[in-house]
C-alpha cells in the first residue's frame, strides 16, 4: 500500500496554510492494553473526518449550512506510547531518548537540551508534553473551526467516559495561535520568509529508506513533529535599540532585507539591491533571492552576523539537504497572546512547529553554534535572540504516514492484523 505525509504539513505551494492553529495533547487514563486507545482514536478520527465536511456528531445539518473551514487534522504519538502493553510496533530507532527534550528543573527553569541557548521559564517546573501519548494538530481558516474540532474531541471523550467509567484518553494541554496578516512576528520582524524551497522540503520532512532498518519500514514517509511554546520578553526587547535588534535578527527591520555586514561603528549594512525597485518589503514578489542566507563578510565585522538569528538558524554548509546531519528543518510558526498572573498580565509568544525526518536533525539545528571568532558589540556580548525568549512547553512526536486504506494514521501500533480485520468489518465496535 502506498504511503504519504499526513495533511497539516504545508510544504507545497497549495493549499495555503490556514490562519488558525491548535494542538491538543492527550494522555492514557486507566488503560491496560494499547488497543483501548486505538479504538478511541478510531472513533475520534471518524468524527473529525465528518467535521472537515461541516458535519458534527450531534448536528447533521443541511448541506447548505455545513461549514468546514478548510480544517486539516494531523495525529502524532509521543515517546511513552510505545511502552503501553500490547503495542504492535516498537518505538522507531530514530525516536531515541537522547534526541528528546530535557525535563525542566524541579524549581523551574533549566535548558531544554544540552548545548541549546533556549531554556524553560523560571516558573516552568513541569512539562507534560514529554510524557503525553497522543497529539492532534488542527489548522483551519479561523479560530472557530480549530476550536470546534477540540470541542468535538472533548465531547467524544465524555461519551466514552460515561460508557466505561473513565475515557481511555484525557486532554492534558491545549495550545492555540494564529498567523499575522503582515507576515511579521511579535519582535516586529518578518517571519517565515527564509524557509526551505518547496521542491526540497520532502527531503527534509519525510522519513526515507536511507536510515531505516527492516523493523521500521512501516514509518516510511512519516515524519517527526517538534512543538515548542516560546514566550517572548517584549519589555526587554522594546528596551533594545533597533540597531541592536537588527543585528540580533540579521535583517533590516522595516524592509526585511538581509544584513551583509556591520561596520566598525556598529552600524548594520543591508544588501543594497533589496528591496528591488517598485517594492518595499522582502515579502513582495521579486525579492525571493534575498530571502535566503546572505553572503556575510562584504566589508565589516563578519563574525557578529554569524551569531545572528539567520546566521545560526540557516548556517551554510556542504551537507546534502536530505542528510540527517543537515541543519535544515521545515517549520510552521503561529503567534499567540494569552493572559498571565505575572506582570504585565500578558504573555506574547510563538508556537514553534517543525517537521523533520529525524530528531537528530532538529537537535543539531537547535544546538548549532558558529565557529567564527569571538566578536564584541555595543550590547556587550555576541548577538543571541535566546536571551529574549523562554520555553513554556516542549515536545517531540512521531507522525506516522497516511497509508491508503488504513482506518487512521498509525493504526498498526494499536492492533494486530486479526484485530484490524475485525475492526474494519465493524466500524461501530463497542467496548
Structure description:
It is a single chain. By secondary structure, the protein is α+β, with helices and mostly antiparallel strands. The protein has one domain (3-425). It has nine helices and twelve strands. It has helices spanning 34-51, 143-164, 201-205, 234-238, 242-249, 302-306, 309-313, 359-366, 417-425; strands at 3-4, 20-28, 72-77, 134-140, 169-178, 223-232, 259-262, 268-270, 330-339, 346-356, 389-399, 402-403. The strands form four sheets. A four-stranded antiparallel β-sheet has the order 3-4-2-5, with helices on one face. It has a four-stranded antiparallel β-sheet with strand order 9-10-6-11. Strand 9 (330-339) and strand 10 (346-356) form a beta hairpin. Helix 1 (34-51) runs antiparallel to helix 2. It is globular, with a radius of gyration of 23 Å. Residues 372-381 have low confidence and may be disordered.
Summary tags:
single chain, about 425 residues, alpha+beta, four-stranded antiparallel β-sheet, 12 strands, about 20% helix, about 20% strand
Average pLDDT level: 89
Please give the largest β-sheet. 4 strands, antiparallel
Query: What is the approximate shape?
Result: globular
The helix tally amounts to: 9
Q: What is the H/E order?
A: EEHEEHEHEHHEEHHEEHEEH
Q: Structural class of the helices, strands and pairings?
A: alpha+beta
